[in-house]
Amino acid sequence: MLQPTGLAVLDALGLTPAVEALAQPIDHLFGRAAPSGRVVLDVRYSNLRRPRLALGVHRAAIFHILHDACRQAGVEFELGRAIVGADDGRLAFADGRASPRFDLVADATGAASPIARRMAGFLGARRRELAFGALWATTPWPDDPHFDPRALQQVYRAARRMVGVLPVGARPGAPDRLATLFWSLKTAAYPAWRARGLDAWKAEVLSLWPQTEGVLGAIRHADDLTLARYGHHTLARPVAARLAVVGDAAHSTSPQLGQGVNMGLLDAHALASALEQSPSLDAALDAYARARRWHLRLYQALSLGFTPFYQAEGRVRPWIRDHVLGRAALLPFAPRLLAATVAGLLLDPRPAAAR
Fold first, then answer.
1. Which of 49, 58, 75, 259 is deepest in the core (most CB within 10 A)?
2. CA of residue 252 relative to chain centroid, distance
3. Is 279 helix (H, G, I), strand (E, B) or coil?
4. Per-residue confidence in pLDDT tens, the chain, 355 aa
5. How far apart are CA 200 and CA 184, in angstroms?
6. Which of 284, 285, 303, 297 shows the shortest CA–CA distance to 238?
């Protein structure tokens, strides 16, 4: 999901219209408990002080648009290299060779980054593997009035099971509109899930949310579903000599708040702004780290705190979610606060012109 924060960065790059052409506007995040039907999540972007819809977008679409923009800007790509580290502007490759010395290395290689892992070991910020991950698949958008094309919809059984459907627009060059279906699963249980067979899993999903039958029909093999593993880590300082770490390499967590791609875009914008405005590279790296520090720490803490209410064993936290947090969401100030939280706007990190 592209939140208003990430969209502000795309605005500054002039890429929002291209993304909007492939994406699906999202106004509503909605979740209910099964079998009671109790509403436990109800967030609308129209409740923001300055409303702006989020966008559901397929990963291939956002990659295609950013990649094209890089090529048009003259960026050169060198593929087929396995990078195992970086030291003072030089990349270390798996074959034992090293690159020439660069003015700056920006590590955007994701949560499994070997560069960031070495930094984490040095800084004492070890990655905490989360017990729950998710299975997800891309399917045709269901032709069913039960599914709102402007909403992320979820159904929960306690916090042990969760199924969701998100409209994600279209892939580049293909007009068909798509959905992403995801299913909460303990990563350690994945082998047992495969052993049970696809039909047993579909029966479990249908017992939780019968209207997903049309979505499930497009999933014919276990390999149609990808297992996403989640971990939590935050580099205390995402910079070193001639090195800046951005996105999931610098900070990863559960996707419950839908901030991942937006945090990466915000990091990139903050780094670019710091490089443009600072008198030296060292000053720019310091400015980048300061600019992102408190927004990142807030959302990393919120994600770590909220995740057990939606992905965990036991009954206490789901009960609190359904009966305490659900009622608190009905208070007069709650709709705007919830919308601002999901939109990523607490400690508003957007460029000043977008606020």
1. 259
2. 9
3. coil
4. 999 999 999 999 999 999 999 999 999 999 998 888 888 889 999 999 999 999 999 999 999 999 999 999 999 999 999 999 999 999 999 999 999 999 999 999 999 899 998 886 555 566 788 899 999 999 999 989 999 999 999 999 887 899 999 999 999 999 999 999 999 999 999 999 999 999 999 999 999 999 999 999 999 999 999 999 999 999 989 999 999 999 999 999 998 888 999 999 999 999 999 999 999 999 999 999 999 999 999 999 999 888 888 887 877 877 777 766 667 667 788 899 999 999 999 999 998 877 8
5. 15
6. 285
Alpha helices in the chain (DSSP H): 4-13, 16-22, 59-72, 114-123, 190-196, 198-208, 213-216, 260-277, 281-306, 316-320, 326-328, 334-342
Residue 301 and residue 282: Cα distance in Å, rounded?
Answer: 28
Question: 25 in helix, strand or coil?
Answer: strand
Token pair for 86: 């970086």
Omega before 35 cis (within 30°)?
Answer: yes
Q: Which of 68, 66, 43 is nearest to 329 (CA)?
A: 43
**Do the Cβ atoms of 295 and 238 come closer than 8 Å?**
no
CA 108 to chain CA centroid, nearest Å: 14
The model carries a pTM of 0.94
Strand ranges across the sheet with 151-157: 39-44, 28-33, 151-157, 161-169, 178-186, 132-140, 226-228
In whole angstroms, how far apart are CA 146 and each of 58, 62, 326?
Answer: 22, 28, 23
